[in-house]
Amino acid sequence: MTRSIYSTYEKGKLSIRYNETLSPRLSSLHICIGVLCPWTCMCVPSVSEVIRESTYVYVWENRIEYNYPYSCLSCCCSPVIYDNIHVIYYDRSVMQQVTTSTICSSVILSSTSSSVCSTKHNKVESECCGFVCLPCIFDPEQVASMITTVRDRRLHYIQIDTDMIR
Fold it and tell me: Which pLDDT value is given to residue 75?
């Protein structure tokens, strides 16, 4: 039997509830990575632009999906861009708490009730290993609110559906 979180509100139709724009800080992050790791070519403006255009955070009705692509040099000395897509369904423990951090305009997903990121000595510190950080979000408060609202609505819907089956 499949997990009920995979189902959709309308059979066969899956909808995006929110699509987040990423912060201009993302280009600054690419420059930093490119300077520290030159083989990534991420400091090359054309490469950074393609990567930025491919970066997204989607809040679907039953999951979040995000892509933070990266690049590296190929054997022909030209940059190759790889997508780095992740999906997290709302019934996973890492989705229990959704918070924000001012560090790089981040949205933090965690499985604990304590804050995961802190601004101690200007660095991100993990208080546990069960978290996901989505950096460079244009409006992290809005994204966190949307994830929480859609997640809670979805989990409530699944509970009602499960109760009706019993």
Answer: 59
With 0-12 CB in 10 A as exposed, 13-18 as middle and 19+ as buried, what is 116? buried
Backbone angles phi, psi at 45, to 5 degrees: -55, -40
CB burial readout 97-106, b (16+ within 10 A) else e: bbbbbebbbb
The owner of tokens 């019934």 is 91
Write phi, then psi, for 66 (nearest 5 degrees).
Answer: -145, 150
Cα separation values, 161 from 15, 17, 26, 43, 64, Å: 19, 20, 40, 49, 21
Residue 160: per-residue pLDDT: 65
Q: Which helix (H) or strand (E) holds 33?
A: helix 25-36
- The pTM of this model reads 0.78
CA torsion through residues 28, 32, 35, 39, sign: negative
Quick check: 146 and 17 in contact, CB under 8 A?
yes
Calpha distance 125→134 (Å, rounded): 15
As separate numbers, helices (DSSP H) first and strands (DSSP E) second, the chain gives: 3, 9
Tell the burial category of 63 from Cβ atoms under 10 Å away from its Cβ (0-12, 13-18, 19+). buried
Instruction: Report how far residue 106's alpha carbon sits from residue 90's, in angstroms, rounded to the nearest whole number.
Output: 19
